[in-house]
Write a structure and sequence with these properties.
heterodimer; A: 133 residues; alpha+beta; Heat Shock Protein 90; 4 helices; B: 129 residues; alpha/beta; Transcription Regulator spoIIAA; 17% strand
Amino acid sequence: MAIVSTETVPVRTEPDVVAVRRRVREVAAQLGLSLVDQTKIITAASELARNTIIYGGGGSMLVETLNGPRTGLRLTFEDKGPGIPDIELALRDGFTTGSGLGLGLGGSKRLVNQFEIFSRPGEGTRITITRWK
Amino acid sequence: MEKIPILKMGEFLLVTIQVDMHDRLAMALQDDLTRMISQTEARGVLIDISSLEIVDSFIGRMLSNIAGMSRILDAETVVVGMQPAVAITLVELGLSLPGVRTALNVDAGMDLLRQSVDGASEAYGHRLH
């Protein structure tokens, strides 16, 4: 698997969520993802970007386009926030420590082909999602 | 701050969301709409989301909130024009917009609003006699 391009986008303030959605849309369209697949990864990115700000205290999104054998879009959200003590619980629908619906993590997992989460209390959280063409 | 315009048409309020809303703008729309319903005594709210390229859990919750609040204020809400890709994504995300009535387009949404308002006043008239 070859990484064709990489780019880092800040995820610090609320308007950054809109910028994240816009950038993911552009890259997904350039890669030739179907409209439904574009919509899915943009929606997942929107959920994760909001989590990065609300729960992680801000961070960044790494955008990677992948090629060979398959074309895909990989996004990594990273923050240096408090981390997630119980990942299994956090992934469950309806669970939230904030005021949201508790669909962000579990929901974004369902919207992508690959979902990896790494978090350590006190150190931060890194979530990587991939949508293949 | 930018605002999403709310148009009054007879006893209905019409909102067309044409920008990618950040969260605060979505919250402001929710507040503005409930204020307008009570000021104008509107009987129905039609929200056109045909320009929206995504609906995530935040915007979905806003739509459910608007429907719930307007119902309490005696107005019906209909959301129209959702793109098929958005509908597919919403359901997979786990959101089925409970309590939100939907229609395919503005015409169908207006019909639905008129029906429910007429139906409600007929039922009321019935009770009076």
